[in-house]
Amino acid sequence: MLxxxxxxxxxxxxxxxxxxxDSNGMIPNHIAVIMDGNGRWAKARNLPRIAGHRSGMKTVKxxxxxxxxxxxxxxxxxAFSTENWKRPREEVDFLMKLPQEFLTTELxxxxxxxxxxxxxxxxxxxxxxxxxxxxxxxxxxxxxxxLQLNFAxxxxxxxxxxxxxxxxxxxxxxxxxxxxxIDEEMISRHLYTSDFPDPDLLIRTSGEIRLSNFMxxxxxxxxxxxxxxxxxxFTREHLYQAIAEYQGRARRYxxx
Length: 256
Hints:
UPP_synth-like_sf; about 45% helix; 2 domains; UPP_synth-like_CS; alpha/beta; Undecaprenyl pyrophosphate synthetase; EC 2.5.1.-; transferase; globular; magnesium ion binding; about 260 residues
C-alpha cells in the first residue's frame, strides 16, 4: 500500500512542476530529507562517486537557506547511515570529511542566520576530526533560536530504538520506573530526537521509494514525498513543490 501511494505521489510530482506553495499557508514545522542519488549523478557524468557527494553538499547549503527563509523550524538531513560503513573505504573517508568541510566553510554564515546545529546518531564510531567539527558547531550555535539543522550521521533507526529499549529496561531494573509507566511517550523521550518534534514532511530524492532505516518511529504520521530528481540536482523549486503538495493533503492521524 505504501509503495503504491508513493509511486502515485512521485507521478503527481512530475505533473506539478509549476506548483507553488502558499507562503501564508501551512509550512511544515519539521522537514526530513533522505538525500539520495549522489553516486548515480556522478556515474552519469563519468565522475567518481565522491564528486557526486561534493556536489550534493552544495545542494545541502541551498536547501538549508531556502528552508530558513520560508520559516521551517527543523530540518533533518540523512547524511550517513549505520549501514554506510560497508561502502568502499575511500568513499567512507571522504564522507567523514564532508561534515568538517561543510561546517568549516559555512559555520559563520549559519551563525549569522541564527541556525542551530545538532547531530543525530551514534558518536561512538565517528573519526575524531568529524566529531570535533560537529561538537564545535553544536557548541557555537547552542544559543541560536532559528532553524535547527539536524545532521543524521551514523544514524540507524533500529539501533536507535534498541538503545532506547535498553535504557528503559535498565531504569526499570534499577527501580527508577514502573512497568506501567512504559508507553509511547517514554520511548520517544529516549530517542536521539527526544528534544524536537517528529517530521511533518519527508522528502526522498532519486526515485527510490523506501525509508532505508531512517526515523522509523518518528515517521509514523509523516507525509511523504518522493521524486526522481537526484540529490545534486534538487533545488529550492523542488522543495517548494513538495511543500505545495503537503499543503494540499489532509493529515487525519488515523481519524476520518
